[in-house]
Amino acid sequence: MEQGQISLTIDGKECVAKEGQSIVQAARENGLFIPTLCDFRSLSPAGTCRVCTVKVGGRFVPGCTSPAVNGMVVENETAELTDLRRALVEMLIVEGNHMCPSCEKSGNCELQELAHHYRIVVPRYPFLFPVQKVEARMAHLFIEHKRCIQCLRCVRGVRAKDGHEIFGFMRRGSDVRITVDVTDPEAVSEATAKKAMEICPVGALIQKRVGFRVPIGQRRFDRKHEKDGKQL
Amino acid sequence: MRKITIEPITRVEGHGKVTIKLDDNNQVVQSRLHIVEFRGFERFVQGRPFWEAPVLVQRLCGICPVSHQLCASKAMDVIVGTSSGELTATADKMRRLMHYGQFFQSHVLHFFHLASPDLLFGVNSDPLKRNIIGVIGAFPEIAKKAVLMRKFGQVVIHLTAGKKIHGTGAIPGGVNKRLTPEERDQLLVGTPEFNVDLMVDWIQEGLELFKGYHKKNHEFIDGFAAFSSNYLSLVRKDGALDLYHGVLRAVDSDGAKIFDQVDYQNYSDYITEEVRSWTYMKFPHIISLGSEKGWYRVGPLARLNTCDFIPTPLAQKEFEQYKAYTQGKPNGMSMHMHWARLIEALHAIEMIRELLKDPDIIHGELVKTGERSGEGVGVLEAPRGTLFHHYRVDQNDQITLCNLIVSTTSNNEAMNRGVTWVAQKVINGHKEIPEGMLNQVEVAIRAYDPCLSCATHAVGQMPLELVLQDLDGNQLDRRIKNVGDFDGAGT
Predict the structure, then answer these.
(1) Could you tell me the residue ranges of all domains in chain B?
(2) What ipTM does the predicted assembly reach?
């Protein structure tokens, strides 16, 4: 093992990772799948969604914020964890109004993809059907609060040129919702809307007037499923 | 006093029931077709972003979603500052290809899967045999071709809209894809068992089947539920049959034009809707004629009554023969709707063949937009008739108003008259009412190919209820048609 490397086992498989990597990063580097929703490329992890939960030493820990440690034994794809992750995805679904048939994020939506991965046909929890108004007053951005899963990806990832945050969260607990400073010209620009839609894992942040421009078959997960020989 | 209820109506799309009231002498005093479901799309589309409408409202229906998607897109073309007549050549032709694919599969479905059992076995035949499964058993070649023809139309939709049902091909101002040469060849060249030329041949065989039946049974086909009416449809500006785009034309029972060359953006100056307490379906009528006399029919019969000619050679030849049968006068014979439907299916497949040879479906710009507008109307000819979509959109891009006049709604009065015709001519005066008699009520409704719910339902699960009631409203007899009761496969 080279300097700066560590070794750990995930589901019994010997894995080598770089020091400082999270369990999720270590798994990816070794070709293993741990589901994520709030994780996004180079952003520092937030640990908000918990669908990456793994078991280490008999305890549940979030895989994205827990560092991989030399000699660590990680449980990942066990029946218990699969059920737990499925339950988390189901909770996210019932907390919002996720109407995939008419949502323009369908085929590009990470929540839909996870629901598909876990074969969720009917959630075990009752739908809450939250009544939340859409925010449509901005020229380029449409905010669909009832689809937001509070992952904080927009807050962390969409920033103005000088680095200040454009999106923020207001209220607390289950009432938490995204907000934007509409007096900030950068916040209401077309570029921000485009970036926000890209970074949002679901259909909560929608760039206006571009919906359904990508045909079925060429969307992100259509291509993945085609590759896998599956159909969404 | 008795009340007969037929519920559910079988071999139609959606859920409906018929009630017929008879007095103590078994004389019919009232007959009605009730649509018992409520959809509410006009309300819940409010507040949604306008570009979502074509994808959302198509969920009204699993048989003709393409019609709703295209019609909403046509309205949204106006919202984004263009019009359906000004789209790029690629967008126009891809949408037409999708639309004709929809026409072909829907008309084939109706004639072969839903209506043909009545013709092939007779309206009074054993109901256990009088269904598509019976057709497969007794006429396997016809059934096989019917299945493959419908499949062909669905493949056209799949390749143009992305999915066979509920695709996303049409978007405000255009389309989101063109065909690849491989996709085109899948239809144009295909295989020896599955290509566009074969479909043209097979639908002509279907026409011959109908004409042969007509020859032997002209009294039934010409006389059953025949009555005159007004007719409405889109036509091309030069009077040609155009199922996708054109101007509104209405003619009366003599063929005189009630209005013509009407820009459909102004449809509400010519047509309005009336609400009645006993059904969820509204009653549209021509304003200038009033609600009593202004009702009209839409669909295949109406379209061949309003248009002057069909712009494809094989269908035009059939059209001439069809028109000659009534000496060029409007045709009010309800069962001739099947004839007209098959001529339209031939026209649709001829158009598909023409479009597949057009290079614009392979190359070219997809979207065109202009100056935003706050209101737009889309109108096209759906398989069942003229379809209206009307939207208002505010400055935030949210829909504030939606009005849909679905084809079956326009035929509401006509279907009720068809039911009344059967009640008075067939059921009136009979104490015992056998199943075959009740089936004739359904045959009259079925001729319109109604989409009662505009929704997807599995074969075999469709309901029609017939209730026999006395004058005080007491139920005397009730027949509910379910799988295994009468029809082996109600749809």
Answers:
(1) 2-37+411-481, 50-408
(2) 0.92
On whether the CB atoms of residues B70 and B95 are closer than 8 A, the answer is: yes
Q: Does B168 sit within 8 Å of A212, measured CB to CB?
A: yes
- Point out the domain boundary residue: A77, A95, A114: A77
Q: Are A48 and A158 in contact (CB under 8 A)?
A: no
Residue A38: give its domain's CATH number.
3.10.20.740
CB-CB neighbors (< 8 A) of A212 in chain B: 51, 54-55, 168, 171, 176
User: What are the angstrom distances between the C-alpha of A71 and each of A7, A34, A52?
Assistant: 6, 19, 20
Whether residues A171 and A119 fall in one domain: yes
Query: Residues B424-436: pLDDT tens digits?
Result: 998 888 888 888 8
CA distances, A197 to each of A33, A76, A188, B3, B262 (Å): 25, 30, 13, 59, 42
Supply the range of the domain harboring residue A158.
86-228
Q: Which residues pair with A73 in a beta bridge?
A: A9
pTM: 0.90
User: Under an 8 A CB cutoff, do B168 and A216 touch?
Assistant: yes
Q: List pLDDT tens digits, range B92-122.
A: 999 999 999 999 999 999 899 888 888 888 8
- Are residues A57 and A160 part of one domain? no
Assess whether pLDDT exceeds 70 at residue A44.
yes
- Judge: domain B50-408, CATH 3.40.190.10: no
- pLDDT above 50: residue B266: yes
Which residue from A102, A215, A216 is facing B52, i.e. has the nearest CB?
A102
**Contact call for A216 and B51, based on CB within 8 A:** no
